[in-house]
Structures are given as structure tokens and as C-alpha cells.
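Can't attach files on this board, so I'm pasting raw text. These are the components:
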Amino acid sequence: MSGSGRTWRFYLCGFLLLLAFDTIVQLSFKNTGVHAFPPEANWAWVQRVFGHPWIYIALAAYLGNFFTWMSLLKHAPIGPAFAATHLDVVTVMFASAWIFHEALTPMRLLGAGVIVLGIVCLAFAESGAHPENDAPTEAKGALGVTAGS
Amino acid sequence: MTPLVATLWLVSVSLETGGQLLLKRAASDPLAGDGAARWRYMASRPWMWLGILTYVVKILFWIAFLSLVDLSEGVLLSSINIVVIMVAGWLLFREKLTPLRVAGILLVSTGVAIVGLGA
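---
Top answer:
C-alpha cells for the assembled complex are below.
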């Protein structure tokens, strides 16, 4: 079925884009905090926050994240999709180790491995093996949506 | 965990779930159409705005929660969101819970919890 193949490619591109935006958001917020250090409950701190480009990069990525997420949710089931977004925990972990020299403890690496394993399961779950589970049929539900025409 | 921390946590989980369900409701509306018209349609209906509002309120509760616990503990406790949203999607949107989907979702949730434990 070419339809399910297209759906799968759409999910892949969408989730990779979302992952990139998510990672940029987290790293940019961290960088914002670093440049505005030390945190203070005053106007000077707010000025430091908005005085560096990082906060604007973070907000732009947040916006990109929102539009990508809303596009994915048109068809993607919310349960598996929300779980899949947590791949950003893994990318942020490695990016933080590289950029900010944060520790990669054995526990964190184990957690990252389990997350990746879960994402692989979700990818297989949505692959062509189960086209009957593809999302368009799931756009109807108890919140008052009925599949039109 | 003090009653205040527990309350902030439960409110955060509820708001996160509610916000995601509202966004899903907005995004999957079959009457919305495609392209720019879809965005105009979503902007003209309350669901997306309610979802965004719920998210903003959630962030306030989350910040309050994080000020009382370590970030790693916050990550650990937030892993429950994934399971709650899976169940909510099944109940409200009739999403099929195939064995592979459930396995994947539980693994991701467990992995996030382990990352929280391992900090």
C-alpha cells in the first residue's frame, strides 16, 4: 500500500524535524541561562536574558516545534506520538555531554538505551506491517469529532 | 513527598494530559481541511487556544513543582505523563493499543524514569 508508505515517511520527517526543534529549544534555554548568569529576581537579569540571541533562537524553535507538532497530530495517534517525542531526552543528553561537559552516568546511558528501544518498537508499530492501525481512522473520537465524508 | 509537592505534581500531569488532548482535538478535526485553510480553521475554534492556555498554566505549576524537588526527580515523576496520555488517547480518541505500541510506550516511559533516577 503506497498510502501507508507515504504516512510512514511523513512521520519520519515530521518526528526528525520535531526532534531537531526540541533539542535546539533545550540547548538554547540552557545557553540563555548561562549567558544571563547569575539568576536574579530583577530587571537586570531579564535584560541579560533578552540581551543575547539564544532566547530568540529558543523561542523561534519553540514556534517551529508547535507547528510541526500540530501537523503531525493531524493523523498521528497522541499516545504513541507523545511517547516518541521523548527521544529528545537522548539527544539533549549527548549534546549536553559534548557542549556543556555534563556527565554521562551509566544510569543515564541505560535510560537512553531503553528509550531508543521503545522508539524502535513504536516505529515498527506504525510501519507498513499494520496499515489497519494507521491514524486516519483514529481521527474520530469521544471528544465530539466524527469522521466526515 | 509532601502533600504540596504531590498536589503540584498531580495538577501538572493533569494539565499536560489535558493540553495534549486539546491540541490533538484541534489538529485531528476532519472538518479543518488542509494547508493554510486548516490553520485558519483551527485558529477560529476554541480547542487549540484552550490547549495553549492549558500548557501555559501547566508550565507555571511545573516551575513551582521543580522549585521543591530536584530536576532529576522531576524527570522521573514526569515519565508517568507518557502512560497517562496513552490511556487518555485510547479512551477519548479510540486509539488502538496494539502490543507493539504498548511495549514502545512503556519502554520510553521506563527509560525516562531511569534517566531521572540516574542523575
